[in-house]
Amino acid sequence: MEGITYVRGDATAPQGKGVKLIVHVCNDLGGWGRGFVVALSRRWPEPEAAYRRWHRERAGNDFSLGAVQFVRVGEWVWVANLVGQRGIRRGAKGVPVRYEAIDAGLALVARKAAELGASVHMPRIGCGLAGGRWERVAPSIEERLVRRGISVTVYDHGA
């Protein structure tokens, strides 16, 4: 069994053939405008529009920590908006990342990836503005995706 593949590059330009599912972490406030989502919005308007609508209509849908919204952005590419952080600020209660929510969301991502026959691509989810630690996130990726035979590529931006 292979593990997570790490590459330098842009997760909004996933490598490889076939269907690709780009996963990223969103907050539970409906905010979109800093971090990885800026790159997503530059490439495709659909994930942001869908996320904002999902949050706005949350009284009648499943928008909550651990939920995932899947947005098709091309013939071979989907984006998974995974709600994995509470709020956007570090404070008395610590950092915004919620590891349990990311883990729950990754279970949903695994199901969708299997259904689509997709590989999964992502930045180091939950470890940027959300303040998480990769050594806490990576085991969930291994457990939920890699052990189920789903190919996972993590992109580290920069040269």
What key attributes describe this structure?
159 residues; globular
What this model shows, in words?
- The chain is an alpha/beta fold.
- It is 30% helix and 22% strand.
- Strands 1-6-5-2-4-3 form a 6-stranded mixed sheet, sandwiched between helices.
- Helix 3 runs parallel beside helix 4.
- The longest helix is centred in the C-terminal third of the chain and has 18 residues, at 99-116.
- It starts with a strand and ends with a strand.
Summarize the structure.
By secondary structure, the protein is α/β, with parallel strands linked by helices. Helix content is 30%, strand content 22%. Strands 1-6-5-2-4-3 form a 6-stranded mixed sheet, sandwiched between helices.
